[in-house]
Amino acid sequence: MTDVDLLVKHLMKLEADFALPSGFLINLPKESDWSFTIKAHALLEAALTQAVLAEVSDSRLEELLGGLPTHRKIEHAKALAL
Fold first, then answer.
1. Residue 42 in contact with residue 34, Cβ under 8 Å?
2. Cα(30)–Cα(27) distance, rounded to whole angstroms?
3. Smallest Cα–Cα separation from 80: which of 22, 65, 6, 23?
4. What is each CA distance from 28 to 5, 13, 31, 32, 72, in whole angstroms?
């Protein structure tokens, strides 16, 4: 399996994990600057929330973490050494 094949495989898994349409991540760089920024930010925020929740293993925190601003999620991820 080539590096490109492996990358595509991982991107497809991420799309499935976040219930994104097929090809969303591959086509992201083709978006306008504004659209790319908004979509990348939303994806980063979702990934941060998922990573922190997976580390603390407490689904009761999902609503709380979902409401935090991105910089606070980053602080939690750093504190958990993610």
1. no
2. 5
3. 65
4. 18, 15, 6, 9, 26
> How many CB atoms neighbour CB 41 within 10 A?
11
**pTM of structure:** 0.70
| Residue 49 near residue 38, CB atoms below 8 Å | no
Q: In angstroms, rounded to a whole number, what is the distance separating the alpha carbons of residues 2 and 7?
A: 9
Query: Which two three-digit tokens encode residue 51?
Result: 């990573």
* 47-71 pLDDT, tens digit each: 888 888 888 877 777 778 878 888 8
Show the tokens assigned to 41.
């930010």
DSSP letter assigned to residue 19: T
